[in-house]
Amino acid sequence: MQQLIHRIWYQNHWAKWLLLPLSWLFALISAIRRMLFRFNIKQANHLPVPVIVVGNITAGGSGKTPTVIYLIELLRQQGYRPGVISRGYGVDIQGCLVVNTGAKACAVGDEPAMIVARTQVPMVVGAKRIDAATLLLANFDVDVIICDDGLQHYALARDIEIALVDGDRRYGNQWLIPAGPLREGLWRLNSVDFVINNGGPAHSNEVLMSLTPAPLIQVDNTLTEKFDSQNAIVAMAAIGNPQRFFNTLSQLGYKIANAVEFTDHQAFEPAQLHVLSKAHPLVMTEKDAVKCRDFAQSHWWFLPVNAKLTPEFDQALLSQLQSVAQTKKGLSHGI
């Protein structure tokens, strides 16, 4: 199903015309919802600390998680104490949950589990971001909140908006869901503070981000083996753009015997991965690895990647953040 959707969105498949009426309905509902917030019929909730929203206007992956990790590290280097909130996509969360180190992806979501495993940042997940943020502030000493996804979650007031775009696929056919990948029209990019292009080529109004791969790491973290680069591998990915991952492995010189795509955020059964890895080592993304830690075999590996952005972006973001923080300092409700 995911492959069919991608053909409709990114390869001009004729089925988009069948879905167009549903896109019109989606556009109407979205417009009404935005108007309710614009005219204060629905109230956006302001927080006493700066809020940075990292999102996109397309469905599917575009590099939000590496960007969030980059921001956590950047802010810490500048003396800030960031915390993160997220919906916890793909899991049924009642209320809000604190994401502890070692949290299972099936309980909190794969991306939150990965972010905390990598950074140990204070993090809370919940369907209502304002409730997650309230719990985060009540339990941790944070002075900046990063919202992982949520560009369209207008109930949470935000101070800085960052939109990601996949440099390979960009905005597809530029139609709204479900006939196209857009959650909102391209006009929405005119109101965000930064547009980050994952992979390039970047347009004049975009900040180029590259993902730098690191050496493979064993999923079970036993460190009992060293990967033999002469081995052919089976590559697997359950992310928004699996082909980007497969291309990266090929560019790094790995010999891919088989490349297997799964639906984004899909949970795995141990048996299916054991079958995949019978003949060759299994290599996956870091986001997928957090779902496999409890049953991983020693010849399963993941490829960490680190985001790299420009010094100009760092300076502009930190300058804007400092201005927001000074404005909010001492104000009980951040307004």
Automatic annotation (TrEMBL):
Its EC number is 2.7.1.130. GO terms for biological process: lipid A biosynthetic process; lipopolysaccharide core region biosynthetic process. One of its GO terms (cellular component) is plasma membrane. This is Tetraacyldisaccharide 4'-kinase. Keywords: ATP-binding, Kinase, Lipid A biosynthesis, Lipid biosynthesis, Lipid metabolism, Membrane, Nucleotide-binding, Transferase, Transmembrane, Transmembrane helix. GO terms for molecular function: ATP binding; lipid-A 4'-kinase activity. It comes from the Bacteria. The keyword Nucleotide-binding applies. ATP binds at T58, A59, G60, G61, S62, G63, K64, T65. It catalyses: a lipid A disaccharide + ATP = a lipid IVA + ADP + H(+). It holds the Pfam family LpxK. Pathway: Glycolipid biosynthesis; lipid IV(A) biosynthesis; lipid IV(A) from (3R)-3-hydroxytetradecanoyl-[acyl-carrier-protein] and UDP-N-acetyl-alpha-D-glucosamine: step 6/6. Belongs to the LpxK family. It comes from Shewanella algicola. Transfers the gamma-phosphate of ATP to the 4'-position of a tetraacyldisaccharide 1-phosphate intermediate (termed DS-1-P) to form tetraacyldisaccharide 1,4'-bis-phosphate (lipid IVA). InterPro entries: LpxK, P-loop_NTPase. The chain crosses the membrane at residues 14-32.
